[in-house]
Specification:
Chain lengths: ~100, ~425
């Protein structure tokens, strides 16, 4: 698979380390009254869809940036690549 | 019809005209007491033991394709009971004992071959870990032997003993481990279940679940609605998809694992050998092909085919451990979709929906578990109580911090 890095252009997926579902960006609030339940779901449960999947890849052998890759997990086709920091900020996170 | 040596000779003398199909091809009935989703090893074994050991009737297995088309027919056929943790080891040993009597039990030649499983170690720390694991196995009454370097050399003189980077220091051997012909396991259970009245319905995909007031009433399928008092889901890599019909999210990701077979060669590999310094393991089938594999590709996938980097990685591991493999030609390769759980261990449990039960999270090690998984799931379905060897395989272990994490990797499915 070739990942089209927003800053560096097309890179071989072997340069990257895979983490998993991009929902891992949305870390729950540890002070919420139901934080225990929220953290259980956040850490252990996954949608695991058969189709488009937004997921976190780390450019470990490259510029060490985190990317959000939208990929079809049935065909392995990569549909979109964003910087994870942009995605996090657009969801209201400070960094 | 019972199979026997006598029968084979009689058929040989009469032109093989007396063989009959090994199972029927029934149309689905309007409703059943038990509907098992998934005609893989686990689903078929569940139906078989429900009928045979728990005396239940009105059972159907619904399979979206053909039986044996999933992981049960795609794996590298290794069976073993060499686990470390208490939640696992009694269960896998129960499975091993069932394998030992399986062919007589279901009257089918599954080519169960206890040719030994040898895990190599390459550092002192790894040897310590294997010593510990071997002791844990023996505490559970399971055979385990720690071999030194010369002990390994006696079994497998062709390995690369000259590697300075990854020297072979010894290995942990389970002589009762080995291989089983995977397709025959699906067929044997299918035939055994069918002969006890189980309807095996192929080309029947479950597309929805009918749930009212917290109770399951049946399943929607590509062949219409099928009512059921109890529904058991055993669909391996499709677990998240099927259970989403009940509104559930699972502690599971689907990943692809690849397998490889070389051209047929004269006998060279005595049992199963796993490399402790790279992602590579190998055995030899009775047809002579070297059957080998390595790690999962490492990213979510439902594709049933992998990518080149892992092919390269596995072949490099093979070359590093046993350079003679470089002379063999690769004949076939394929992939299967693994239900990778959050701690690397399976789930056999009830759900919050009355009458709906789940069996999954087998990762890349569920073939060896097939008999015990079927037995334990049948036990749960029939009695509503977990089988004593499967009591740890519950959904709530994540909430309670009771993970069964053999590798100590945490909630990172692609590392288990
Ligand atoms: C390459 C590879 C190597 C492996 N090597 C080993 C090994 O050496 N040792 C070992 O112990 N394990 C191994 N495994 C793991 C093992 O094969 C699996 O854990 C095990 O087979 C899973 O259980 P199963 O047989 O029931 O799965 P499957 O055979 O996959 O059965 C699930 C069935 O459910 C059906 N299904 C899915 N969705 C639906 C639906 N909506 N409706 C109806 N039916 C549906 C599928 O078509 C499939 O037939 C390996 C796996 C792979 C892919």
């Amino acid at each position: 698979m070739i990942i089209n890095h927003p800053l560096l252009g097309p890179r071989d997926s072997q340069e990257f380390t895979y983490l998993g579902d991009a929902s891992l960006i949305d870390r729950p609030d540890w002070q919420a009254p139901d934080a225990v339940d929220q953290f259980h779901d956040y850490l252990y449960l996954r949608d695991n869809p058969a189709g488009e999947h937004r997921e976190l890849w780390f450019h470990e052998q490259g510029d060490r940036s985190w990317l959000v890759v939208t990929r079809n997990v049935v065909t392995h086709e990569i549909l979109n690549v964003e910087l994870a920091s942009d995605v996090a900020r657009s969801r209201g996170r400070s960094k | 019809m019972r199979y026997s040596g006598f029968r084979v000779i009689r058929e040989a003398l009469t032109g093989h005209k007396g063989w009959q199909p090994a199972w029927r091809d029934p149309a689905p009935q309007a409703s059943y007491d038990y509907v098992i989703i998934g005609g893989g090893g686990h689903g078929l074994a569940t139906a078989y033991y429900l009928a045979k050991e728990f005396n239940q009737a009105r059972i159907a297995v619904l399979e979206k394709g053909y039986i044996g088309g999933g992981n049960v027919g795609r794996n590298t056929t290794i069976i073993r009971s060499n686990y470390l943790l208490d939640g696992n080891e009694p269960f896998y040993e129960f499975s091993m004992k069932l394998w030992e009597g399986l062919e007589q039990d279901f009257n089918f030649n599954a080519m169960v071959s206890q040719r030994g499983v040898l895990n190599l170690c390459h550092t002192d720390a790894q040897r310590d870990a294997y010593t510990r694991r071997g002791n844990a196995m023996r505490l559970n009454g399971v055979d385990a032997e720690l071999l030194d370097r010369e002990g390994v050399r006696r079994i497998a003189p062709f390995l690369n003993f000259d590697s300075a980077r990854f020297p072979i220091k010894g290995g942990l051997l389970q002589r009762r481990g080995g291989t089983v012909r995977h397709d025959a396991v699906a067929w044997g259970y299918a035939r055994g279940a069918d002969s006890r009245g189980v309807d095996i319905i192929q080309n029947c995909e479950v597309t929805g679940m009918r749930i009212e007031n917290g109770r399951i009433l049946g399943v929607e399928t590509s062949r219409g609605f099928i009512g059921a008092k109890k529904v058991g889901c055993a669909v391996a890599g499709s677990s998240s998809k099927v259970m989403s019909h009940a509104g559930m999210r699972l502690p599971i990701e689907s990943h692809v694992l690849q397998a490889f077979v070389s051209e047929g060669l004269k006998p060279v590999i005595p049992g199963v050998i796993t490399y402790g310094a790279g992602h590579f393991y190998v055995s030899q089938s009775d047809k002579g092909g070297l059957v080998f594999g390595g790690d999962i590709d490492g990213y979510n996938s439902y594709a049933q085919r992998g990518n080149m980097p892992v092919v390269e990685d596995v072949c490099e591991g093979g070359m590093s451990l046993m350079p003679i493999i470089g002379r063999a030609r690769l004949l076939r390769m394929w992939g299967g979709i693994m239900d990778m759980s959050m701690d690397g261990s399976p789930i056999i449990d009830k759900t919050d929906v009355d009458g709906l039960y789940f069996n999954g999270g087998w990762c890349y090690g569920g073939f060896k578990a097939t008999p015990a998984s079927g037995w334990a799931f049948a036990h749960l379905l029939a009695t509503d109580k977990p089988h004593q060897t499967a009591r740890a395989y519950r959904f709530d272990r994540f909430r309670k911090g009771l993970m069964i994490d053999e590798k100590g990797m945490g909630a990172q499915p692609n590392l288990h």
